[in-house]
Amino acid sequence: MSKQVSKSFLKASGGVAGLLILFAIIIAANVIISRVRVRVDLTGEKLYTLSEGSKAILAKLEQPVTLKLFASSSSPAMPPVLKNYARQVEDLLREYVVASNGRITLEKYDPVPDSDAEEWAQKYGLTGQPMDIFGPPVYLGLVAQMGDAEATIPSFDPQAEALLEYTITRLIYRVCHPEKPVVGVISSLQVLGTRAPPFPMPGQPKPQSQAPWLIFQDLRDDYTFRELQPSVERIDDDIKTLLVIHPKDLSEKTLYAIDQFVLRGGQLMALLDPLCVAEMETGGGANPFGMPRTSSNLEKLLSAWGVRYDENKVVADMRAISRVRMGDGGRIEESPVWLSLSRANTSAKDVLTSGIESIMLPYAGAFSAESTKDLAVTPLITSSESAGLVNSFSAQLGASTVRSEFHSGGVPLAIAVRLSGTFKTAFPDGAPRDSSGSNTNEAPSSAEQSL
Length: 451
What we know:
The strands form eight sheets. A seven-stranded mixed sheet has the order 11-10-12-13-1-23-21, with helices on both faces. Strands 5-4-8-9 form a four-stranded mixed sheet, with helices on one face. It starts with 6 loop residues before the first strand and ends in a 30-residue tail after the last strand. A hairpin with a 6-residue loop joins strand 16 and strand 17 (332-335). It has two domains: 7-31 and 181-199 and 208-421, no CATH class; 40-176, Glutaredoxin. Helices cover 23% and strands 24% of the residues. By secondary structure, the protein is of the alpha/beta class.
């Protein structure tokens, strides 16, 4: 087997909010960019620097890209606040030109009424906004072109200024990659939504379709998400990024498929939960013989990679307390297991997390691993030093119970980590045998891959 780059991203956290934020980060980082840092004003004259994520995308441009900015800057109908924002957009675009080493060209057009520029703006699908009933439409949009490929931002919204750089970089990536990358998804949750059967059972209420989670809805313009069943025995070759979200009771063959995917250089994002809020909200994890099980794990793979993770423990952090309402209409309490984390809890040097200002993670788990000569372990999100692990059952009983069991370890706990380097297989004896006792058709895995 040829030696290729292998990377894996692990996150132990409960709840929809943490899942969505970290999902957005890893998708953007592995396939596009991380959620980029908001622009930084260096001089007071609105000269901005780009994030490392954007620079990484620009460095990989293989063909020239033309950016066409359409701004009605000369129009009296354009409000001053929008004119100021148009200048900010132009300033930032010029930073892209500088950072691209000649691979990006910026063109500016003023689409006055009945002009060629306005006609082209309309052909590109840019949205003119009327400022009053009788006034001409005002334009502030962007077109990116590379060869025959084309992508547009129909109009810039000043209220979305914090996402300006992310939006522009995403546009550049989209025009450079007109074919959507395929992202595989394995999950015990209905993250990609469900379709109601066209013919319900007689006498039964008609089931309702369920929409995909918002993050998938937002990113489906850039990616093709392919749902893989938890019983999948092979990851398709055209899948370069695999999301494993809250995996429960995966078979040996499925674990082997994930193992082989990593060894062949695939990008893996594993989202593990000691206490999954998303599952509790939907009534999942029901167990008629006892307490519902809302934890997930990839124990066999983690063990092979030297990662320790206890699916029955959640992080309590006395410096990251959140005010939350317990139950429907319940009391508000200060919970140390609902973590309100800031930039101080993230890796400022890593492109994956350098743009995070704040994040809330309910019932987060923790990983423990040390770098070796073969495998580098990079903590991406950590607790403070005033943190410890408590039983996940106790964590649901309220802040007073958590405090009674709490013992600080005096060191930060790793909530999200990235692994990169030489991965050892979790199946040194080859593929699991099927029920007939013969090996599966897939070839035995290589013991390691090189970075």
